[in-house]
Amino acid sequence: MPASRLLRVVPAILAALLLAPRSGLLSAQQDPPARPRLPFVAAVRAGDTHYFSGWGSRNPATGEHPEGFDAQVHQLMKNLQELLQKHDRELRHVVHSHAYITYPDRFADFARIYGQYFSGPPPALTLVGVPRLPATEVEITFIASHAGELTPVRLEGGTTSTHASPALRDGDYLYVSGMDSRDLRTGRLPEGTFRDHARKALENVGTVLRAAGMAYRDAVKAEVFLTDLANFEAMNEIYRSVFSEAPPTRTTIGVRELPGGSPIVINLVAATGKEIIVADGVKPGPIISPAIRVRDRVFLSGRIGTAPGGVGAQVREVMDDLGRTLRAAGLDFSHVVEAKVYLADMDDYAAMNEAYGGYFRERFPVRSCIQAGSLLRDSRVEITLTADATVRP
């Protein structure tokens, strides 16, 4: 072969080797496969409420995560600031954050760093430890407001926190921080059984509601996190004594650990004027409402998958069920603004995305996805949704 031709051929071969997938070389006419679009968006606004997807600690300039937990939390908070600025918001407009960390025993460090970024009253916060997150070790999903001044709830005689308000009022809605079983005055855990912890956590929720001029009956959405789902029935027993009529929607998740050594954390959204939504043929449970409407907003309870055939079949089962509830409220998937997906195994992430994404035609909602410590009935997936009649594709 002439040397001039060889010089032309060798670079072409090297280029092909660099572009080749594991299965073989790309032809000269074949483009590299496009990265699949993930089925969520960064932010969705509905009225005066702005929903944001889960955000991690990856540095957008380098594409890498910083080394060390503290550096990752700082990078995460900088990412949130930049994201909010793109939507004409600041950290002071955040009303409720959900923070998930995979580092055991780092709750205090997270709270210390997180609190440094708020010059005024911090938002409500729910903080849990989970086994695994998608491509990050720490993640926050949050809601921000475009309404007027936000009103923090203060507890008389309670301990003062620099990283979380007990609750924050935003117009019609009250966002209650995750309440664990520590005494609000002393910070001590109760002695006794799990039931004592569950009772104390619910008492703490009630204390915050009363300080805001509300009551248990005003709860529209609850999230319950347990370090051991073996305590599920005991939790229900205590929960039933508080939410005996017109209960809120609810999602119950097993997690890795919770702040302060508590075995339970409960957060709430509360509002007056709620309407319970029940799809045809569905019998509402005695302590969980399938869905609740407050004016334009609809909160749906978490649904777990039980269908055989893997996570894809369970996602379709859950989404079909949620779709029936949406239709009972006069809505459909185009009105969904926020989704939370809990997986038993993060290795199911791609299969979940494939099944989940097909339910949204015009626009994806924001979303967070975490690997739970465990799910009820050995389910592979649990999904909860929030929808709003005012949102437009």
Largest sheet: 7 strands, mixed
N→C terminal distance: 60 Å
Q: What is the level-2 CATH architecture name? A: 2-Layer Sandwich
Rg calc: 23 Å
Give the SSE string. HEEHEHEEEEEHEHEEEEEEHEHEE
Structural class by helix and strand composition: alpha+beta
Q: What spatial form do the alpha-carbon principal axes imply?
A: globular
Number of domains: 1
Helical stretch tally:
7
User: What name is given to the CATH topology?
Assistant: 60s Ribosomal Protein L30, Chain: A
**Counted beta strands:** 18
**Percent range of helical residues:** 25-40%
Q: In the CATH hierarchy, what is the class?
A: Alpha Beta
CATH superfamily: RutC-like
The poorly predicted ranges are 1-35
Mean pLDDT across residues:
91
Strand content: 25-35%
What can you see in these coordinates?
With 393 residues, this protein is of the alpha+beta class. It has a single domain (37-388), classed as RutC-like (60s Ribosomal Protein L30, Chain: A), CATH 3.30.1330.40. It has seven helices and 18 strands. It has helices at 3-19, 69-86, 107-116, 194-211, 232-242, 311-328, 349-357; strands at residues 43-46, 49-55, 94-101, 124-129, 138-145, 151-153, 167-170, 173-179, 219-226, 249-254, 264-270, 275-277, 291-294, 297-300, 303-304, 336-343, 366-371, 381-388. The strands form three sheets. Strands 12, 13, 14, 15, 16, 17 and 18 form a seven-stranded mixed β-sheet that branches. It starts with a helix and ends in a 5-residue tail after the last strand.
Task: Please tag this protein with its features.
single chain, about 400 residues, alpha+beta, 60s Ribosomal Protein L30, Chain: A, seven-stranded mixed sheet, six-stranded mixed sheet, 7 helices, disordered N terminus
